[in-house]
C-alpha cells in the first residue's frame, strides 16, 4: 500500500490541515507516515460523493475550528458517521463502518493538495461490505 509524503507540489506535513470549501471547518490530521493507502469506495454513498479517502486513528483527527458547522449523516446500520460542512456541503471525514476506531478523511480537503495528482487509486468493494457478510 502506497504512502505519499508529497502530492503534486505539496509536501505532506506530519500534522497537516484540512478544510472544507468555505473554510468554516478546519481539521488537523496527524500524518507521520504521509497519506497512507488512498482509495475510493463503490458503496452507495461513496460513489455519489466521489472522494478519495485515506485513514487515521480516531486520535489522529482533531476539529480545530468549526465543530458547530459539522453535520452528521448516518444511514442503514448507522455505524458509519459521515460529516459534512453545513455551510458549503463539503464532505470532510467519516468514522468508518469497517473499523470504527478509524476516521477516513477526504484527501481533497488537505491544504494544498489536488487529489487528481494521485492519478489512479484503488477502489474498495463497499457494495459487498465485509460487515454485510456476517
Structural notes for this entry:
- There is one protein chain.
- The model has no long low-confidence stretch (mean pLDDT 93).
- The protein has one helix and 14 strands, in the order βββββββαβββββββ.
- The two termini are 26 Å apart.
- The strands form five sheets. A five-stranded antiparallel β-sheet has the order 8-13-12-11-10, with no helix packed on it. Strands 4-5-9 form a three-stranded antiparallel β-sheet, with no helix packed on it.
- The protein is mainly beta and 134 residues long.
- It is 3% helix and 38% strand.
- The protein is globular and about 40 Å long.
Give keywords.
3-stranded antiparallel beta sheet, 5-stranded antiparallel beta sheet, 1 helix, mainly beta, globular, 134 residues
Oligomeric composition of the shown chains: single chain
Q: State the helix count.
A: 1
Structural class: mainly beta
Question: How are the strands of the biggest sheet laid out side by side?
Answer: 8-13-12-11-10
Helix content: under 10%
How far the N terminus sits from the C terminus, by CA atoms, comes to 26 Å
Calculate Rg over CA atoms. 14 Å
Largest sheet: 5 strands, antiparallel
Q: What do the pLDDT scores average to?
A: 93
Uncertain spans: none
Write the H/E string, N to C: EEEEEEEHEEEEEEE
Q: Strand tally, please?
A: 14
In terms of DSSP E residues, the strand content is: 35-45%
* Shape assignment: globular
Amino acid at each position: 500500500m502506497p504512502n505519499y509524503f508529497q502530492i503534486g507540489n505539496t509536501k505532506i506535513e506530519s500534522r497537516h490541515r484540512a478544510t472544507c470549501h468555505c473554510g468554516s471547518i478546519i481539521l488537523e490530521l496527524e500524518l507521520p507516515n504521509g497519506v497512507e493507502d488512498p482509495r475510493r469506495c463503490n458503496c452507495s454513498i461513496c460513489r455519489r460523493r466521489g472522494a478519495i479517502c485515506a485513514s487515521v486513528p480516531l486520535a489522529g483527527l482533531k476539529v480545530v475550528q468549526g465543530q458547530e458547522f459539522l453535520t452528521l449523516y448516518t444511514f442503514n446500520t448507522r455505524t458509519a458517521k459521515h460529516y459534512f460542512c453545513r455551510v458549503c456541503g463539503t464532505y470532510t471525514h467519516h468514522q468508518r463502518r469497517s473499523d470504527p476506531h478509524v476516521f477516513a478523511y477526504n484527501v481533497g480537503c488537505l491544504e494544498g493538495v489536488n487529489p487528481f495528482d494521485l492519478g489512479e487509486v484503488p477502489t474498495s468493494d463497499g457494495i459487498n461490505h465485509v460487515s454485510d457478510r456476517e
